[in-house]
Amino acid sequence: MARTALITGASSGLGAEFARQLAARGTSLVLVAPEGEALEQVADELTGRFPVDVEVLTADLLDEPQLQKVVRRLTDPDRPIDMLVNSAGFGLPLSFERNQIVDEVRHLHLLVEVPMRLTHAALGPMLERRRGRIVHIASVAGFIPFSTYGACKGWLISFSGWANGRYAGRGVTVTAVCPGFTHTRFHERMGLPEREIGLPAWLWLQAPDVVSGALRDIARGKALSVPTLRYKTAVALSRILPASVVAGVGGRRRR
Questions:
Q1: Burial (CB count within 10 angstroms: exposed 0-12, middle 13-18, buried 19+), residue 65
Q2: Cα(170)–Cα(22) distance, rounded to whole angstroms?
Q3: How is residue 112 annotated by DSSP?
Q4: Confidence at residue 141, expressed as pLDDT on a 0 to 100 scale
Q5: Could you tell me which residues come within 8 angstroms of residue 69 by beta carbon, excluding any fewer than 6 positions away?
Q6: Which listed residue, of 27, 36, 48, 85, carries a Cα 20 to 30 Å from 145's Cα?
Q7: How many CB atoms lie within 10 A of CB 170?
Q8: Catalytic residues
């Protein structure tokens, strides 16, 4: 596994879980998020449990100067990054026509442009060393018509598949991790508590299970990681069902 990993969105959710499981494997970490206090708490937890170095890099990735701080860290030749985990993101609770367009643009920027730019920054040094892992936290929503969230995640899936095919032979793999509904604070931050979503309990995943499965797929150099048979089946069905049926399923999850 990587010697040093940089993780965006590391203050909570899947980003924090990636940090825990990588630290348990002896990987040093650079944790990135806009919430400095929350990052420090995660860092304290990890250094208290594991003999690893943890660097905190407070940055709002939607702010250009702060994004450039992360780019500089990724490209620092004296402190190489072996794994980049693009986990930063947020969802929008309303249907597209009811959202403010400025919020939709920020959403697109964080879910598509930011990981593209960070991937570009990390890729050069990794290719020079002929070693590296790049991970994008996508979603099964990327396989179905699911408003702009699904479109953004679909872009990450497509980009990861192309990039893995392009660069794996040169030592750098790119993986899109595509969980389904997972117990994190993601929906709560949207103003949509899990109890209001109305899904049966068997559809919900646990973050540790998602990440442990993803790390296995990343180590194997896979371009795509979809956890559990039930979500693999959902992805397979999305490719054969009529588009109108799939779009109807996706549309039920936005207010």
A1: exposed
A2: 24
A3: I
A4: 87
A5: 57, 59
A6: 85
A7: 14
A8: 149
